């Protein structure tokens, strides 16, 4: 789907969408409960969540999704073999690959889009040292056989926090305790904190250690009913629109959430945005100025922060962002290309973007790069362009936020489908 957005400010209030990250984690924990039914409310059927639902069903969970509510009966008798289609979801692959190993399922993992090129070899290497065997070391499809053994798992912390989360889901199922040790400082630490918090709500004990975590074995997940919390990662686009001068309020966010992307409010205020009214989580426009951003803990915020930087006075440096090159696309290259096409001045480095701000962008035509966050960032940039913005491949938003353009129109945005 290709669209053209006519520039105009957005206005209004909307409920923040449910967190995809929280939904993945709650669904996996519910599927690993061997007794009773868990009920999860507030799910959004994005493509990534549908991928996780499909793989959990393939591994033996029974899941009834009606509207935004999932009723989950956990895996009691795992199948001997399973075809696990992760679609384009890196979270699904990295979370459920160790789970398949812990359950002893001979599983074939398939993927689409850029997923077959995204790395998993470090995680696979640790699994191979503990009883699993892989049919190939990179690319997809691949098969994994064997059952994971407990032990000492060691991972770098600066590649993907999802490797750690995947093991945290799986290792409590093993017959003895295990440990996860980090060989380098953990990046995207907030996502691991989300995983640990979810595990504890489902009755699983995770013990923090100076080196990482100790995970006791022979644990049981406990059924529960809960509502998926609102999402800071996707709310960041609306909060940024507020910082750029659109009077938009985003309701429903938990100020005490463990989500790392809760940092969006602090980062926008670092640009000079101010609190909106009495809501401590809202922002409103002001005279924005450049700042320096360490992206190591907030990689998913970089696309929209790059847009804010392009419309802030001075030169902003977004650094420690090398991992963005192995996301759904090379997000550093994508944002440098898109913003340049819209009229911004951007210097792209190996792990940084240096962006010179301007009062407005001129508009133009950009590719969505097959990446939901690139598309949404460009749509927000259009609110401060002098001419129309055409986005090719705008359907990529379905990966995480299928209602994004409906909400954009509800806030007064003008979108024409080409």
Automatic annotation (TrEMBL):
Keywords: Amino-acid biosynthesis, Aromatic amino acid biosynthesis, Cytoplasm, Transferase. It is found in: Cytoplasm. GO terms for molecular function: 3-phosphoshikimate 1-carboxyvinyltransferase activity. It catalyses: 3-phosphoshikimate + phosphoenolpyruvate = 5-O-(1-carboxyvinyl)-3-phosphoshikimate + phosphate. Residues 7-406 form the Enolpyruvate transferase domain. Phosphoenolpyruvate binds at residues 20, 90, 118, 162, 331, 373, 399. It holds the Pfam family EPSP_synthase. The active site is at residue 300. SUPFAM superfamilies: EPT/RTPC-like (SSF55205). GO terms for biological process: amino acid biosynthetic process; aromatic amino acid family biosynthetic process; chorismate biosynthetic process. Gene3D superfamilies: Enolpyruvate transferase domain. GO terms for cellular component: cytoplasm. Pathway: Metabolic intermediate biosynthesis; chorismate biosynthesis; chorismate from D-erythrose 4-phosphate and phosphoenolpyruvate: step 6/7. Catalyzes the transfer of the enolpyruvyl moiety of phosphoenolpyruvate (PEP) to the 5-hydroxyl of shikimate-3-phosphate (S3P) to produce enolpyruvyl shikimate-3-phosphate and inorganic phosphate. Monomer. Belongs to the EPSP synthase family. This is 3-phosphoshikimate 1-carboxyvinyltransferase. It comes from Harryflintia acetispora. The lineage of its organism: Bacteria, Bacillati, Bacillota, Clostridia, Eubacteriales.
């Amino acid at each position: 789907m290709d669209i053209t957005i006519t520039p105009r400010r957005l206005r209004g209030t909307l409920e923040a969408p449910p967190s995809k990250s929280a939904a993945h984690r709650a669904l996996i924990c519910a599927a690993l409960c061997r007794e009773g039914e868990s009920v999860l409310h507030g799910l959004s059927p994005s493509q990534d969540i549908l991928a996780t639902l499909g793989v959990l069903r393939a591994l033996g969970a029974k899941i009834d999704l009606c509207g935004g509510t999932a009723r989950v009966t956990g895996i009691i008798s795992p199948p001997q073999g399973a075809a696990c289609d992760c679609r384009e979801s890196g979270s699904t692959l990295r979370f459920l690959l160790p789970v398949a190993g812990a359950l002893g399922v001979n599983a074939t993992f398939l993927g689409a889009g850029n997923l077959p090129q995204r790395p998993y070899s470090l995680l696979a290497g640790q699994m191979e040292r503990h009883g699993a065997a892989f049919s190939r070391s990179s690319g997809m499809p691949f098969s994994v056989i064997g059952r994971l053994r407990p032990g000492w798992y060691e991972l770098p912390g600066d590649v993907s926090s999802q490797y750690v989360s995947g093991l945290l889901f799986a290792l409590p199922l093993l017959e003895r305790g295990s440990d996860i040790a980090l060989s380098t400082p953990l990046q995207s630490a907030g996502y691991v904190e989300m995983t640990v918090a979810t595990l504890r709500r489902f009755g699983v004990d995770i013990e923090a250690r100076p080196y990482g975590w100790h995970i006791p074995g022979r644990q049981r997940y406990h059924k529960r009913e809960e509502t998926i919390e609102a999402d800071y990662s996707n709310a960041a686009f609306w909060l940024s629109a507020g910082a750029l001068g659109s009077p938009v309020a985003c309701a429903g966010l938990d100020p005490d959430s463990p989500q790392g992307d809760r940092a969006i409010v602090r980062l926008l205020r670092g640009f000079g945005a101010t609190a909106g009214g009495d809501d401590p989580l809202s922002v409103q426009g002001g005279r924005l100025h450049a700042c320096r951003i360490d992206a190591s803990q907030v990689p998913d915020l970089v696309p929209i922060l790059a847009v804010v930087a392009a419309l802030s006075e001075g030169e902003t440096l977004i650094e420690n962002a090398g991992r963005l090159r192995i996301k759904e696309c090379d997000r550093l290259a994508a944002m440098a290309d898109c913003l340049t096409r819209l009229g911004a001045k951007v210097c792209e480095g190996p792990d940084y973007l240096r962006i010179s701000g301007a009062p407005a962008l001129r508009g133009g035509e950009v590719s969505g790069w097959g990446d939901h966050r690139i598309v949404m960032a460009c749509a927000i940039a259009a609110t401060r362009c002098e001419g129309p913005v055409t986005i090719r491949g705008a359907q990529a938003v379905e990966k995480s936020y299928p209602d994004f353009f409906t909400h954009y129109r509800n806030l007064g945005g003008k979108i024409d489908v080409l």
